[in-house]
Amino acid sequence: MMMSQTLLFISLTLLILPLFFSTTTLAALSPLGAPLQPTPAPTPPTAAPTKPLVPTSPGDNSPDTTATTSSDIVGILRKANSFNIFVRLLKTTQLINQLNSQLITIKSGGLTILAPDDSAFSELKPGFLNTLSDTQKQELLQFHVITDYVSSSNFDTLTNPVRTLAGTKPGKVELNVISYGGSVNISTGEVNTTINGIIYTDKHLAIYKVGKVLLPLEFFPSKIAKAPTLAPAPAIDAAAKAPKPDKEKPSSSENSSQSSQVVPTETSGAISMCGTLVSLVLGVVFVAVLTT
């Protein structure tokens, strides 16, 4: 009886021990909690655009900030708003084709456009643009384009008068720029204004907003100051040009008159001396006679 109980106990122990060890092993291997998620890497900041964007006008919060290609001047001005008249003139005069072609083929330098907005054109005399010929309209727009790239900090390096696409016509088509204290003043002889903002800038193109339409003085002939004419050189008198002698020689007639005047003077002196001697001799003789 005791033997059977002992065998039963050993059998139960052999059955329970493997279960116990397997449970302990599973417990040791199983995690106590949910596995930790790996920490995500920080998102790198968005790179800044490589090209400057066309700034929105005041009050325009449009989310569209897509960069415009530098060769599309019309697209830049349209995105900036309120340059409709300037864009229309660029198209009607076909100057826009010339400007875009220059920007495409340019390798150094660039262009600087001084763009007046619609309010600047509204300040012109009513019907003024209609009085201009097609050639004058093209010259007006060319007068707003400087033939080199000028950054906002380099206006003080320009030499006046500044060369524009309108060419050089002293006293008629002259653009003078003065930069002082962060302000850029522009004068044409007829119009004085300032640069009010930057519309667009890159390596070869800069577009600035100006407060007034730049009118060349050539469009106002009555205001062009006439160039002073030099007085003709005075005629040189041949007699005055010839050197004068130190002392003029008297003529023959003068010599004869001088001789006639000198000779009597000397003769009268001799006669006077002779008379004196005769009187002296007679006086001595008279005194001698009386003493005898």
Automatic annotation (TrEMBL):
Function: May be a cell surface adhesion protein.
PROSITE patterns: FAS1 (PS50213)
Annotated membrane topology: Lipid-anchor; GPI-anchor
PANTHER family per UniProt: FASCICLIN DOMAIN PROTEIN, FASCICLIN-LIKE ARABINOGALACTAN PROTEIN
Bias (Pro residues) ranges: 37-47
SMART domains associated with the record: FAS1
Polar residues bias: start-end ranges: 58-68
Subcellular location: Cell membrane
Name this protein carries in UniProt: FAS1 domain-containing protein
UniProt keyword annotations, A-Z: Cell membrane, Glycoprotein, GPI-anchor, Lipoprotein, Membrane, Signal, Transmembrane, Transmembrane helix
GO cellular component: plasma membrane; side of membrane
Record SUPFAM superfamilies: FAS1 domain
Listed InterPro entries: FAS1_dom_sf, FAS1_domain, FLA_A
Gene3D superfamilies in the cross-refs: FAS1 domain
Signal peptide: 1-27
Organism: Lupinus angustifolius (Narrow-leaved blue lupine)
Species lineage: Eukaryota, Viridiplantae, Streptophyta, Embryophyta, Tracheophyta
Chain segments annotated as transmembrane: 269-290
Primary localization class, coarse: membrane
